[in-house]
Design a protein that fits this description.
225 residues; mainly alpha; two-stranded antiparallel sheet; 7 helices; 2 strands; 71% helix; 3% strand
């Protein structure tokens, strides 16, 4: 697909814009499963470069997709933790594949810029799954201000925290916004939050420098011709 990164970016932005407004636990969980399945398929398509990339992307993405549609396990927390861990690996793999394509591009196009923004969003989504896993293992890893959010968990067994809360926290950390309604309260959560904040700042700086250099090289080459 010629404009694969643009399509992927539109889908990710739609995902982040619509899901917070889905009402009802069952509807929200089903919607999350559906959109992440589509996101995984888009990621495999947008991130591939050679046949081996498609094979490796599928090997990472298919177990994640299957795991997303498994029944909700209320007693064994290890199942969702494994699925979330595989999701993090897959999202970071696709992000690295897209970033490699962006940095190896010969000129800056709208689709190149869309691919760079997709990478930024995928890093934020991967961070959300990391934070949710940390909260599921140790709820005291984060302090949530009273009244800031609705129910924290998807079910009454308190075994599966709602993802959108940690998507919100991940992106406020990645952009170093930090409203303070969710605060890291343990060594590991603070370390991961700090690492994500630094990654977000360095990513933008390196990305802008790379895109500007590509445009300068293309302009110089065009003038010579």
């Amino acid at each position: 697909m010629r404009h694969r990164y643009t399509v992927l970016l539109i889908f990710i932005v739609t995902l982040l814009s619509v899901l917070p407004f889905v009402k009802g636990d069952e509807a929200a969980i089903f919607s999350m499963k559906l959109v992440f399945s589509v996101l995984l398929l888009f990621g495999i398509s947008a991130g591939h470069r050679m046949r081996r990339d498609v094979i490796l992307g599928s090997a990472l993405g298919i177990p994640v997709m299957v795991g997303r549609w498994l029944p909700q396990y209320s007693t064994d927390i290890r199942v969702p933790l494994v699925i979330d861990s595989l999701t993090v690996v897959f999202l970071l793999y696709i992000a690295m594949m897209i970033l490699n394509r962006v940095f190896s591009a010969r000129r800056v196009t709208l689709d190149t810029i869309a691919g760079a923004v997709c990478t930024y969003f995928l890093i934020g989504l991967a961070g959300a799954f990391v934070y949710r896993a940390m909260f599921a293992i140790r709820p005291h890893s984060f302090v949530i201000a009273p009244g800031s959010f609705g129910p924290i968990f998807e079910n009454r067994s308190r075994s599966r925290p709602q993802l959108m809360h940690f998507v919100y926290y991940s992106f406020t950390t990645l952009t170093t916004t930090g409203f303070g309604d969710i605060t890291p309260a343990s060594g590991p959560s603070r370390a991961i939050s700090l690492l994500e904040a630094i990654t977000g700042q360095f990513f933008l700086a390196v990305l802008i420098a790379r895109l500007v250099s590509l445009e300068l090289i293309h302009s110089t080459r065009r003038d010579r011709e």
